[in-house]
Amino acid sequence: MGLSSFFKNLFGTAKDSATDLANQAESTFEHAKEAAAPYIDKAETFAEETIAKAKEASEPIIDSATQYAHQAKEIVSEYVEKASDSISEVIDSVKEKTTEVVSETKTAVSETVTDVSEKTETKTDEIIDEVSDKES
Asked: Where does this protein have compositionally biased stretches of type Basic and acidic residues (predicted)?
């Protein structure tokens, strides 16, 4: 029996010690939470003030960026219009030159056909004359 009472006392004491330590830890945690509350409030206030200052400081920058964006949009629009006009002019010029080339080609083909036709007619006449001369 001495051994069992030894273990009961040993484990009972350990159980009591663990319970006491848990109670002390809980109490210490509550004290720490209470002590930290003002610091947490100060940190929240500091964060809110810093965010408000950052917003206030960034407003002019955002306004400037918006103005620059509008100016850039206007400038780009102007160049787009100019580029569109230039492209239209190039297209018109290409159309004109193509029309000229087609016209020149038609003229050259007509002249060639006429020349060939005349040469053929001349040769035909020569052949007829030769045949006529041989028959006579």
From this structure: 116-136
